[in-house]
Every structure is written in C-alpha cells, then in structure tokens.
Amino acid sequence: MSRLNEENLRIARQIVSRYPKKKSALIPLLHLSQEQNGMVTNEAMEHIAELVEVTPAEVLGTCSFYEMFKRHPVGEYQINICHGISCHLLGAEDVLEHAEKSLGVKEGEITQDGKFSFEGVECIAACTEAPCLQVNYRYVNRVSSDEFDQLVTDLKNGQNTQIPKHGTLAKTRQNIQSEKLAGPSEVENASPPVWLQRNKEDQ
Amino acid sequence: MSIPLITTSRWNIEDGHTLEGYLRTGGYQGLRRALEMTPAQVHEEVKKASLLGRGGAGFPAGIKWGFLPPDVWPRYLVVNGDESEPGTYKDRLLIERDPHQLIEGCVITCFALGLSQCFLYVRGEMAHGQERIASALNEAYEHGYVGRNILGTELSVDVVLHWGAGAYIVGEETALIESLEGNRGMPRLKPPYFPASIGLYGKPTIVNNVETLSNIPWIVEHGGDAFAKIGAEQSTGTRIFAVSGHVRNPGVFEVEFGTTTFRDLIMGDQYAGGIRDGNTIKAFIPGGASAPWFFEEHLDIPLEKTTVDNEGSMLGSGAVVVMDETTDIVKACHNVVRFFSRESCGKCTPCREGTNWLEKILDRILNGYGRPEDIDLLLDVCDNISPGISWPPKQTTICPLGPSAVSPIASALKRYRSEFDAYIASNTDTPVTVNGGRA
User: Fold this and answer.
1) Of A7, A80, B239, B254, which has the fewest Cβ atoms less than 10 A away?
2) What pLDDT is stored for residue A201 in this prediction?
3) Closest Cβ–Cβ partner in B144, B162, B165 for A68
C-alpha cells in the first residue's frame, strides 16, 4: 500500500514533467510519499525510482541525506523544538525538558497513542519569536510551558484543525493549466531564447 | 532620514501576498518597464545599482550575472530560498508576505539574461511559505505574468517551485544545485568552474538569494542610479536585519546600508529597543552563526560590508544575535559549534571530523570533565580546519561550513577564556591526559 496511490501518481507525473531531467523530481516525490504514508517506506522509494528512472539505492542515497524524511514511524504530530542559538538564549532547553515531562517520552520516541513525538532541531527561522517550535512544520511562537500543554491537549482532542497530519507540507498545490506553461527547455543543443534574438536584431 | 522601503513595503498590507493586493500597490510595474527595454539594458541597470548579493557572501549581483559565458544554452536561474543560517529570518518573510515581488524579480532576471527556466528552491520546513508561493504562482500563471508569452510578448519562462527537505548545507550554491538535481546536497569543488559557467545539468546557472531578487523589481522600475543613491558607496540600497536574542524588542527591520550602526539597530527605540531588563551587552553575532562575534566596542560600526569585513567579521545573512551579561559563553559557543557539527555534509575530512571533535571537546568541558590542555586542543583542531584561524578564513575544505565552526570558538576564547578555564577548573575527577594516561 505504500506505493503512490492513483491520485498521487497523477500529481507525481505532473511534477516530473516540469523538470528538464526526471531525477530532479526526486525530493518533491519523496515529500509526496511522506504525505501519503506519514513516513518514507522502502516500497515508496522503489516506486519513486521507477518514476524518475534511477535505482532504488540512488533514491535511498538522496533520501537519507535529508532530515525531514523519516524512514521510521513518527507521531501523527511531530513537534520540532528549535534549539538554535537565538532560542537557546531564550530557554529552548527548558522547552525540551518540559516536552519530555509533559509527553512522557524521550526525544525521538512516540507516545503510546501514536499521536506525538518530539525532537530538538536546528534553527527554523523564527528567531525573533524565540523560543519557538513547529508542529508538522507549522509555527508556534514564544511558547511557554502552559502553552505547550494547551497545544498538546488541543491536538489530542481534535480542537486544532489548522495542523495537518505529519507528512503534509503545503496544503496549496501548484495548479497550472498546461497551455499556460512555457515547458522545460531542452538540456542539450538548445538555441538562445527568442526574446534575446529579437533584441539582437533591434540593436 | 527616511528612505523608501524597497523589499518590505508590503509586509504590513494584509493582502499584499495576493495578486490583487500586489497590483494595487504597484506590483509588476518593474516587469512592464523591463519589457520596454532590451535585456542588455535591464542588466545594465542592475550593474549600475551595485546590488550586493544578500545571501551571505555579498558578491555584486550584476557582476555575477556577467560571468555567464556567451552562446551556451540553455541557461538557468536557481533561487536560493533555503534560509537556514541560525539567527537569519528574512527570506521566509519575503516569501510569505510578498511572493509576487520575488516572482517578478525572477521573471525580470530571466528576461535580462536569457535564462530559459527558473527553479525556486524553498526550504522544506517553510510549509506556509510554500503555500504562499504556490498560490502566487497559480495567480501569476493565470494572469500571464509567468509562463508562456508573458504579458503578450515572446518572453516565455516557467518558474518551478521546488522544495528542500532539511539540510543547512544546501544553502551553499553548488550544494543547492546538487540537491535540485535530486542528489545528496554536497558542495562541488570550485574553482575552476563556478555555477555561472557549469551549473545545473552542467549548464550556465545563476544562483541568487531571495532577498537579492526581491530588490530587482524596484531597481528596474526606478533605475539603478536611484538605487545606488541609497545606502553607502560600496553597499547600496537597504538590507533586512533580524535582531534576536536578549533584546527588548526582537524584530526584523529594513534599514539603509551605511547610515545605521549596530548601536542604532540593537539599542534604538525604533529597532530592537536595547538589552532586556536593563542588562549590559556581553557579545553579539553580527551576521549569522558563521560570523566571528563582536563585542561592546564594535557597536558603533556602521552596517556596511567593507567596514565590517575590515573589523574582522561579516554582515553575512543579516542576522544579529545579541547576548547579554547573563549568557554562559561556553554554552553559547557549544550551541553554535554543535550546529555546524550536525550540519556538516561529511564530504571533506577536516570538517566532518573536526567539527565533530570540537563539539565533543566542548561537551566534556561543559559536563565538568574538561582537561587543562583542552583549550589548546580546541585551537589545534580549529587550525586544522582553518589554518591560522584568521579572518577571512583560510579553508582546508571545499566550502566554508567547516571554517564557520571555528568562528565562535576563536571569538569566545579571545574575550572570555576565563569562563572556559572556570569550567575546566571545576573538573574534580582525576585528570586524564589527551593520550589517555593518568596525570
């Protein structure tokens, strides 16, 4: 079941078609599979290898380099607590300590109900809002212990509908009619773009 | 003196990120203006503006553009939106709050240089930014600002939204290209070949930062000369600075280059508003985690590239991180070193091994197991990564990530060595020498 489903396969083919070389679509497709399954499975990587025409080993090679791709299960809500320098100065370690106590699991473990996991991550670019965290890559700024607990309660009870399950990044997809696309260029033996040629004649 | 806001003018407009809001506030005028000019004229305006790259290295964009070899096709534009330098926080806001400005900058650049496709690489963790860019692109395509026959002309360029998956090193331009080709994000050796001659798919490629490209519409609309009049002689225009850490009012500010000092930015009421709780300043990082630290005596240095370079640091990515008197310098130093150690891609030995050992040595100092010789050991490892521990740093590595881990150690030891000594003196265990023997 962890090959891309029919709908995602359609999206995947669309993504691949926008690049001059298929392998460029590898990271976007890994995200797509993670969106479908909450993690990246071996079967998904094999399927992606077929789609971009490389070996599964090459897909794994790329996949394993990037922190966001989880090749093991994580909580439905993955809480990334920033411990970059700005958050460190304003109490990131306290947030991490509190998370461990509040969720009752250690960094990298999943709560028994499968809902939560957390880890300390490097700077997530919200430094003026320190200490901050992301739940499935959605920001929560200047978070206190009470706010952390409230957030967890809301997510548990389904009262926070803003945050999608782990794996979903942008909820808005690129949706472009094919006649509006310029289309990828030929990588080899391309000629100079027409608008440059016209201007040469003008000058 | 009040100067026009160039890149952040729509940040407080609620619908500034939509096409409607963008057009209402003068959007896509730069593109219309460009299409009345020849591509060479547009390039000329950017050269006249002396726009410095806003990613970190600060190389003039117009000159970088000029490195494209003539008559090699196709050429590509790659937008570096993989902002991950600790303390840095401007590209994300530009992407979220004014995505059309960035798209317009991309299209103008492709027009000027004959680039046949643009890849907009947004950091993976920025889900909201990706949503904003995706909606903006959908609108821009729908209304003919991007894609086939832009605004009814023969200009046809696609802007492809691409997203990363969590790797700081991908902010290095050749690593970004590797990642965009679907590979592990490891930098390529340069020189001899820079991306402008051999880049994406082995073709000439311009890699520009989000903030750099966000300046382009204004420059083309108002002219390069008007832009060059703002700011300092060698650092023109404005720059977005994020001030974080122990300040009263942390925030992101667009300021004029050269006329503003670090003191204005950190202490000024209209900016960060001074140190919290009436404390005194202990140190500050002037340009992102890679930059050597500054101290109180550096506060009056103007925000201007050449001056800051000469003082032994850099404006880098425009991230100012302020530490007050309560800061544990050893912990702060360990924090920054750990970052580089974690983010080392592993390609070059001095960085892969060196940053890792720096972190381990600092770990043991912090945990009360420090040895008197550890400070010399730290400096020795630093020297192996960046011979001479000087500024600008020498490298034994392909990219500057390794030497960046040296900056916090060299800075912290220079001024606050006593704090390291105090940790080491707290070691009550039987000392163990580096060679493993009992002292």
Assistant:
1) A7
2) 53
3) B165
Closest in B73, B137, B332 to A85, CB measured: B332
Q: Which of A28, A89, A194 sits opposite B323 (nearest CB)?
A: A89
Confidence of residue B434 (pLDDT cuts 50, 70, 90): low
Confidence check: pLDDT of B34 > 70:
yes
From residue B123, give the alpha-carbon distance in Å to each of A31, B132, B163, B171, B396: 13, 13, 6, 9, 28
Which of B160, B332, B342 is opposite residue A18, by nearest beta carbon?
B160
Residues of chain B contacting residue A171, judged by C-beta atoms under 8 Å apart: 131
- The CA-atom distances, in angstroms, between B173 and each of A157, B57, B121, B180 are 44, 11, 11, 10
pLDDT at A1: 59
Residue B340 pLDDT grade (very low, low, confident, very high; cuts 50, 70, 90): very high
The pLDDT, as a whole number, for residue B189 is 94
Is the pLDDT at B439 greater than 60? The verdict is no
CA distance A186 to chain B (A): 7
Map out the domains of chain B with their CATH numbers. 19-229 (3.40.50.11540), 238-324 (3.10.20.600), 329-425 (1.20.1440.230)
Give the residue-averaged pLDDT of B98-119: 97
Q: If you measure CA to CA, which chain A residue comes closest to B125?
A: A137
Interface size, chain A vs chain B, as Cβ–Cβ contacts under 8 Å: 232
The helix (run of H) or strand (run of E) holding residue B208 is strand B205-209
- Could you please state the CATH topology (level 3) that the domain comprising A6-71 is classified under: Arc Repressor Mutant, subunit A (1.10.10)
CATH says A77-156 is which class?
Answer: alpha beta
Helix axes A6-17, A42-52, angle to 10 degrees: 40
Q: Do A183 and B158 touch (CB under 8 A)?
A: yes
Across chain B, what does the average pLDDT equal? 94
The residue with tokens 């995947």 is A12
DSSP A82: E
Distance from CA of A13 to the nearest CA of B (A): 14
